[in-house]
Write a structure and sequence with these properties.
With 504 residues, the protein is α/β, with parallel strands linked by helices. It folds into three domains: 236 residues, Rossmann fold (3-Layer(aba) Sandwich); 172 residues, Rossmann fold (3-Layer(aba) Sandwich), CATH 3.40.50; 69 residues, no CATH class. The protein has 18 helices and 22 strands. The strands form five sheets. It has a six-stranded mixed β-sheet, sandwiched between helices. A six-stranded mixed β-sheet has the order 18-19-20-15-21-22, with helices on both faces. A four-stranded antiparallel β-sheet has the order 2-1-4-5, with helices on one face. α6 links the parallel β9 and β10. α5 runs parallel beside α6. It starts with a strand and ends with a helix. One of its GO terms (molecular function) is ATP binding.
């Protein structure tokens, strides 16, 4: 097959940073092409240029031999290019059919033909194997179903190139399999799929070819992914060998720091109890819907308790009050960094200092110098990659955003307990190892850490103990010396979990 999509000498800069430098590679028609790189490597910038959201400073994009001169996302649509972002672009209040026809409703004289609208969508969904009722409101669909609707929209627009940005980051295993089957159908039709992911298993399973970016430059281009190894890709991404990404560091645990007894709530009706010791990293693992995040919100006070107590160093924490939890020394890095973690539209400096201002703002008067010093301290300590503390946090990679959130809470006085939900979701290999190093250092200093993760290799790699949840209950409590992948998965699966046996 001939090269259908070409990037020729693409460069793009922003104030203080060169995001892309002379990027050139091509993709065959009907290929699934992987795009990998550390956070901040330039993947998102390249996708923005492809989508028409921004323009390159130099170079050109060619599709089927024709140079593309985008001025808008609409121009990219008309050229047959559609990007499906992690933050899906659907209108929750509208139906599936209305979302798919948005901006080009069938009808005459301004009158929409609803029957044509729904039946056309029903037929198109059936053709591509998507089992969703066209009349259902998008807000009632799961994340996986919404993603299928986004892809269906691309198909209905006769997209020749579809870029998927971390498409499985919020999907269950079943939803991921449906997505993979749909990708295979699109590939068979000759559609190019540009697949952006940090998950090597998916890259090797789906992709025909691969491009690796590093620091805004082309680190490698592999026309045949069958000729490359995992270790080679990781080395190309980070520019160094990472023999053990987890880097686990054993340590002695101290006295009980967090004590949870008979805790329950509306979304976690069965009472749960557990302890975490000073210097211990406790992992919570379970499938989607197991109750891990619900448990976290109850402990932190973000959701209302029905029963139970939470103690930090023997002192009870008032229920339903995150501010009281913070005052007790408990802090939370949430699962959804973008919506619940960072303060969008604000600088790195402001995001770090926002929780600590009361400590150095006498009489309510802010101290810009102290804020700047605090930000500089944690930017250096946590190795946040940024040209300036004044940079808008939304422009940082996921890994660097996570570091800023950690910096915010570590700047808080008297932190004793860190709860971190999905610590490395959407974060590249190199940044993952840096996040783990931060957690190990905090634990070595006596902090108790609770890690909630849906990635079993991660939770096995970095924790001292794993509590497995299934259907809102604790199914197993396993020390590191007894970690076994099959045992953990068996405890997490409803069909084989001790929880299921106890209920039968």
């Amino acid at each position: 097959m001939t090269d259908f999509l070409q990037f020729n000498g693409i460069s793009k800069g922003y104030p203080g940073v060169q995001a892309l430098s002379d990027i050139s590679f091509s993709v065959r028609k009907g290929a699934v092409h992987g795009l990998m790189g550390e956070n901040g490597a330039g993947k998102s910038t390249l996708i923005r240029l492809l989508s028409g959201d921004q323009s390159a400073d130099a170079g050109e994009i060619r599709i089927d031999g024709q140079p593309q001169h985008y001025c808008s996302v609409r121009d990219a649509f008309q050229a047959g290019v559609i990007v499906i972002h992690q933050e899906l672009q659907l209108v929750p209040e509208l139906s599936v059919a209305e979302n798919l026809w948005l901006g080009r409703f069938p009808g005459k004289g301004g009158v929409i033909n609803s029957r044509t609208l729904i039946e056309t969508v029903r037929q198109k969904l059936a053709e591509i194997g998507i089992d969703v009722d066209p009349s259902t409101k998008v807000g009632q669909l799961s994340i996986g179903e919404r993603q299928m609707v986004e892809i269906a929209k691309a198909v209905m627009l006769d997209a020749r190139v579809i870029a998927l940005d971390e498409p499985t980051s919020s999907l269950s295993s079943r939803e991921s399999e449906i997505l993979f089957a749909l990708i295979a159908k699109l590939k068979a039709k000759g559609t190019i799929i540009l697949y952006v992911s940090h998950r090597l298993d998916e890259i090797f399973r789906l992709c025909d070819s691969l491009t690796v970016l590093r620091d805004g430059k082309l680190a490698a281009h592999h026309p045949d992914i069958g000729q490359v190894t995992r270790d080679q890709i990781i080395s190309e991404m980070v520019g160094r060998e990472i023999s053990n990404i987890w880097g686990y560091k054993p340590r002695e645990a101290g006295a009980v720091r967090l004590k949870v007894r008979d805790l329950s709530g509306s979304k976690l009706p069965v009472p749960i109890s557990f302890d975490v010791r000073a210097g211990e990293i406790l992992g919570f693992f379970g499938l989607i819907g197991a109750g891990r995040s619900e448990m976290t919100r109850l402990v932190y006070g973000a959701d209302s308790r029905r029963s139970g107590t939470v103690e930090v160093d023997g002192v009870k924490v008032a229920p339903d009050s995150p501010p009281q939890s913070i005052r007790s020394g408990m802090v939370l890095c949430p699962e959804d960094r973008k919506h619940d973690g960072i303060v969008q539209g604000r600088s790195i400096e402001e995001n770090i200092a926002i929780s600590s201002r009361r400590h150095f703002s006498p009489f309510g008067i802010l101290s810009p110098r102290k804020e700047a010093d605090l930000a500089d301290t944690f930017i250096a300590r946590l190795k946040v990659r940024t040209p300036s503390r004044k940079q808008d946090i939304i422009n940082l990679s996921g890994g660097n955003q996570q570091k800023v959130i950690l910096g915010r809470w570590l700047s808080e006085q008297g932190v004793k307990l860190l709860i971190i939900d999905e610590p490395t979701r959407g974060i590249d290999v190199g940044a993952k190892s840096e996040i783990y190093e931060i957690l190990y250092d905090l634990a070595a200093g006596g902090m108790a850490i609770v890690v909630i993760s849906s990635e079993l290799p991660e939770v096995m790699g970095i924790t001292d103990r794993i509590m497995v949840m299934c259907q809102g209950r604790v199914a197993a409590d396993i020390p590191r010396t007894e970690f076994d992948e099959r045992r953990i998965l068996a405890a997490a699966l409803p069909d084989t979990s001790p929880v299921a046996a106890a209920q039968s």
